[in-house]
Design brief:
This protein is of the alpha/beta class. The protein has one domain: GTP Cyclohydrolase I, domain 2 (2-Layer Sandwich). The protein is built from 9 helices and 8 strands. It has a 6-stranded mixed β-sheet, with helices on both faces. A two-stranded antiparallel ribbon has the order 2-5. The longest helix has 16 residues.
Length: 218
C-alpha cells in the first residue's frame, strides 16, 4: 500500500524560513540535561515501571544522549552547508542526482521513527556543490521533529535558495512507525512525497526521466 503527496509551492519568505529553521524556529532556551533526564524518569514511571531499578537507572542518561544524535539537525544551518560551491564545471548543465540516500527521522506527532530513502536532483545554472553536501542537507532536516511533507519541501527550498539551479527535484519514500506500530497498525505502508521546482515542474519529460532513474535503481 502506498500513499502519495505532492507538496505545494510556497512563497519565497516562507520557503527561506522553512529551509533554514523548519516550520518553527529553534528554541531560544533549552532545558538543562538534568531536567531532560528527570522528564525521562517521569515517563518511565508513567509507563508503570520503576526508574530506580537496576536496568533503568541509567536509561535517562542514555535517552538524552540518544536525543542529542536524533535531533542534531537543530544545531545545523542548511544554507551554510551549501555555501561552498564550484563554478568550473566545463559547461556541465545536465542533471546532478543522488539516488537512495538512507534517511531516519522522527514524527513530530508521536516522536517515533520515520525510516526511508530520499532521492535528490538539480539542474545547475552556473554552480554546483560537492555531492556529499546534498546528503548532509537531507540529514540536517531529517534529524529534527518532522512531517514528511514538510521535510520534502525544506530540502527542495534550501537547494533552490542556496544554489539557484534551473530546477530541483525531491522524492521521499518512507515508512512511518506511528502508523505501523500503533493506531491502525498497518506495517509496510510506503508514504511517497515529491517536490519539483523550475524545469522539473515545467518539463514533464525531465520529471519522468528523474522518476525513471529512481526506478532503475530498484
Amino acid at each position: 500500500m502506498t500513499t502519495i503527496t505532492n507538496t505545494p509551492s510556497q512563497n519565497s519568505s516562507d520557503s527561506l524560513k522553512k529551509a533554514t529553521n523548519g516550520s518553527k524556529g529553534p528554541l531560544t532556551s533549552r532545558p538543562t540535561r538534568e531536567e531532560a533526564e528527570d522528564a525521562v524518569r517521569t515517563l518511565i514511571a508513567w509507563t508503570g515501571d520503576d526508574p530506580t531499578r537496576e536496568g533503568l537507572v541509567d536509561t535517562p542518561k542514555r535517552v538524552v544522549k540518544a536525543y542529542d544524535e536524533f535531533f542534531k539537525g537543530y544545531k545545523e544551518d542548511a544554507l551554510e552547508i551549501l555555501s561552498r560551491t564550484f563554478e568550473d564545471v566545463d559547461g556541465y548543465d545536465d542533471m546532478v542526482m543522488l539516488r537512495g540516500i538512507d534517511m531516519s527521522s522522527h514524527c513530530e506527532h508521536h516522536m517515533v521513527p520515520i525510516i526511508g530513502q530520499v532521492h535528490v536532483a538539480y539542474i545547475p545554472s552556473d554552480k554546483v556543490v560537492g555531492i556529499s553536501k546534498l546528503a548532509r542537507i537531507v540529514e540536517t532536516f531529517a534529524k529534527r521533529l518532522q512531517t514528511q511533507e514538510t521535510m520534502t519541501a525544506q530540502i527542495a527550498n534550501v537547494i533552490d535558495t542556496g544554489l539557484t539551479p534551473r530546477g530541483t527535484a525531491v522524492f521521499i519514500e518512507a515508512e512511518h512507525q506511528c502508523m505501523s506500530m500503533r493506531g491502525v497498525n498497518k506495517p509496510n505502508v510506503a508514504t511517497i512525497t515529491t517536490r519539483f521546482t523550475g524545469v522539473f515542474q515545467d518539463d514533464s519529460d525531465l520529471r519522468n526521466r528523474f522518476l525513471g532513474m529512481i526506478n532503475n535503481g530498484k
